[in-house]
Design a protein that fits this description.
single chain, mainly alpha, two-stranded antiparallel ribbon
């Protein structure tokens, strides 16, 4: 079998390491083989490439050096930072970051949207560490260097020595090269230079390069330039990716109404698109518009019955609406789907307790403790203490008696 055909076959089977090794053999024989060079770039990129639309978090530097703040006191309902407090019955409580308790831990929800140094130092915490959240670029840089450790001779391409204008004019090489520099090498500035040259070579008519420019601008903090590029790309070819990235820009600018407007316009072009409906539901939930948010989550379930986020958010809405028995049905559905973690068993235990299924409470909390790690164990013990103090009320000769639940 031809070596290049075999490498291409491994790439299509998602065996990227074997594909890259075969391409290396071809390049040892002929260093100017552009087909093998391009295929190896794509294989190395595919090994670490992730969906970065929802992978961005706001770090300390981003929250402190925010130059896009227009008003410190926004009108109610127009800002994610000034959402109403949970004072009325039925509204969900809020955590340390000010976000309403939701059914899912989403990207950028571990860090708060505070504008002061005190909030920035207190709230940005990862799920398993007390270290403040770093930016998206720094995490990707660690991924890139880890992948280069397997190459004893150093990096595959010397990016600083590339002639960007030369490669930008080669249509079959320019896009894989951009993805390699952007994701594998995490060199945003050189990726931006390549995208600028390629946009000029395409005479500003290629929407793909405009989206690439927007991605680079967004990571460099030039959110207004990124907004302009995404809108220009949408005028040429509307895509779901561009709509989601534009909505993330408005989320970063704390303009939830613009996010709703963009996603609603996108749904007219892409009806029943789950990712767009999810974005709308998240924004409405952050604005404490729970009924409309649950409506969108139900529409998501009608299109994708296995959507974990929609099921979990509907379940938590029923729980805080004093319907734990209905929430229990949704959590059991997650358990049947194969989800098996401490948080799920903790929620099932609370639903069983408030639905008066006392025979299942202890078993659920024991299972949650066996699976809990780090601070999740503290949350489980807090709920166990609450259940143990209140106990199970029953009548004994007309007098209320409290029985304490013991957890082994």
């Amino acid at each position: 079998m031809d070596t290049f055909y075999e490498a291409l076959s491994f790439y299509r089977k998602r065996k990227f390491e074997k594909s890259a090794l075969l391409c290396t053999e071809l390049l040892d024989k002929n260093p100017y083989d552009q087909a093998a060079w391009t295929l190896k770039m794509k294989a190395l990129t595919a090994q670490i490439m992730v969906d970065d639309i929802e992978a961005e978090e706001e770090g300390i530097a981003d929250s402190l050096l925010d130059t896009e703040t227009i008003a410190q006191a926004a009108r109610p309902g127009t800002s994610l930072r000034t959402a109403p407090a949970a004072t009325a019955a039925g509204l969900r409580p809020r955590g340390n970051t000010g976000r309403a308790v939701s059914g899912m831990v989403r990207p950028a929800t571990q860090s708060g949207l505070g504008t002061s140094l005190e909030n920035a130092l207190k709230t940005p915490r990862t799920a398993r560490s007390a270290r403040p959240v770093t930016t998206h670029a720094a995490r990707t840089l660690r991924l890139g260097t880890a992948s280069m450790m397997t190459q004893p001779d150093g990096p595959f391409i010397q990016v600083s020595r590339l002639n960007m204008s030369k490669y930008a004019s080669l249509e079959g090489i320019a896009k894989p090269l951009f993805l390699y520099i952007f994701y594998h090498e995490n060199d945003v500035r050189n990726a931006l230079d390549l995208a600028v040259e390629a946009t000029k070579a395409a005479q500003f008519k290629d929407w793909w390069w405009k989206v690439a420019l927007g991605k680079c601008y967004a990571l460099l903090g030039l959110v207004r330039d990124a907004e302009q590029q995404f809108r220009s790309a949408l005028k040429q070819v509307p895509t779901v990716d561009a709509f989601l990235r534009l909505s993330s820009i408005y989320t970063k600018l704390d303009q939830p109404l613009n996010v709703l407007e963009v996603c609603t316009a996108a749904l007219k072009i892409f009806p029943n698109e789950v990712t767009l409906q999810t974005e709308i539901a998240r924004i409405l939930e952050a604005l404490n518009n729970m009924p409309t948010s649950v409506k969108y989550y139900r529409e998501i379930l009608s299109e994708e019955a296995m959507n974990v986020e929609a099921i979990a958010c509907i379940a938590v809405n029923y729980f805080y609406s004093d319907q734990p028995e209905v929430a229990l049905c949704f959590y059991r559905r997650l358990l049947q789907m194969g989800l098996y973690n401490a948080e799920l068993f903790n929620n099932i235990g609370l639903c069983c307790y408030y639905a008066q299924h006392y025979d299942m409470v202890v078993n659920c909390f024991e299972r949650a403790l066996s699976l809990a790690i780090d601070e999740a164990a503290a949350d489980v013990w807090y709920n166990i203490a609450h259940v143990a103090i209140v106990g199970c009320r029953r009548l004994d000769g007309g007098n209320p008696v409290f029985e304490t639940l013991y957890i082994n």
